[in-house]
What we know:
This protein is an alpha+beta fold. It has two helices and eleven strands. The protein has a five-stranded antiparallel beta sheet with strand order 7-8-9-10-11, with no helix packed on it. Strands 3-4-5-6 form a four-stranded antiparallel beta sheet, covered by helices on one side. A hairpin with a 2-residue loop joins strand 8 (125-134) and strand 9.
Amino acid sequence: MMRRFTIAALAMSGLFAVAQVLTVSPDAHVRASTGLTKSEQARLLPALQSATGDDRPDLLNSFRAYKESLAKTGTPAIIAISAKDCGVHSNCPFLVLLQHGSADVLILNSVAGDWNLKDTRHHGFRDIILTNYQGIRQLVSTWLYDGQSYRVSACMDRTSDGAQHETPAVQCGF
């Protein structure tokens, strides 16, 4: 099984540009981070600095960035997840930024150990699922776009024994 995964990962790495980095989440989702252009990097840096409160000029080196078409039209959003400032169980700062004019505007700021996009949409934008790992528990939150930003709409608490129950959404809105 591990050998198949390794072979698949190596085969996939040949498909991506050199600037991309493969990351594997705790749930074994494999993603290639996107190499950003110089202008995208210049636009993203101040947005990340503002969102994190960290003004280091090399802050981009602490994040993996993914261009995702969250809406059917328009410029893809940038999903940035920290690769270094992670808490327990790989829970990292998770940001979604949307280009507005010459700047990136923060539309989601949370913490996640894993993320996924749903096919369902609100206000034209795909819904986002974030998983936050807490020991033997996972808090799985669903985020919906409200026309201005993403808001947590549902939260499920799952334990390692398979039990799950709905939790107040406010508990997942990190």
